[in-house]
Amino acid sequence: MRKILRGIITSTFFLLYPYLVYRGVQEGIVWFAPAIIASIYLHQAIKTSRRRVMFAKLDVVLLLLIGGIFYQDLIAKIIPIFIQLSLMSFFGKTLLKGKGPSLVERFASYDFPDIPPIISQYCRYLTIMWTSFFAFNITACIVLAIFAPVSWWALYTGVMIFALSGVLMVGEYIWRHFYFRTLELPDEPIPGVKDSMRSMIVNGRTIWLDVQAS
Q1: Cα separations (Å) of 191 from 110, 114, 194?
Q2: Is 141 left (phi over 0), alpha (psi -120 to 50) or beta?
């Protein structure tokens, strides 16, 4: 129960991070949000038994602490870039030769144990779409962090990314609903947005570990 509560608190903080950075800039305490992120990563680095993961998290802690001293405004805006980069790598890795099946297919396999080749290809296209979306977000976050007011950066990283993600998910479901009608598929019903979200929550950790191990 304590682990679940800690996960909820951490996730909530990451969701509120752009707003906290925005308020920090306004109040002159921009170091506050990166300092909390650094403490979270430090705690995770101490708890993990995987040396590679530990050093990666310690690198983030060191970067945030140094940035908190010398480049506060810029380093404070780097966390969303890390998140989008991690997501892009997570999706994109499964597109590499010998690293498949694609990430979306891994989730789809829980609904369709025997995935037809045409659905497998469709899942690969979706994985490419999401990988490209995260790459676009990385570019947008960098440009906004360097050239735009902090309010623009906070609006995009704290609101627009999630809104665009929702539009992509709903739009893909609508397209899937009509596209799959033209195919000869098994009798299993087409998973809806709610079913897809549930699958991501329930099976996400298993698939994450599987991708990391591949």
Answers
A1: 10, 15, 8
A2: alpha
